[in-house]
Prior knowledge:
Layout: H1 14-20, H2 50-64, E1 68-75, E2 82-89, H3 96-106
Antiparallel strand pairs: 1-2
Amino acid sequence: MDDMNNESGVQSNGLQKELWGSSSSASADLYRPQVNPEYKPKLGQEFASIDDVYEFYNQYAKEAGFSTRVNFSMKNKDTDEIVRKEYVCSKQGKSFVQEVVSEKKKT
């Protein structure tokens, strides 16, 4: 299936189709937890506060059977206000703690 506009009119690529549940022959290899639709993230979803985002994604993760962690956070230098926070699966990527422990074992 070609790249095309989704229900919200936003153009999506193949990866987004995989993540958001569009049909694909490769999707048979993916684990897709059964999550109540009210807990599923939606493209373009907005939140009133950063705390609301945290609560929503932690509830989604709990329903889907995994946990989250903050991968990236950025503050406004002038106001010290958080302007961006990126949540990921807690098992995504390499943990800093694992890297430090590995370095200590080598010496």
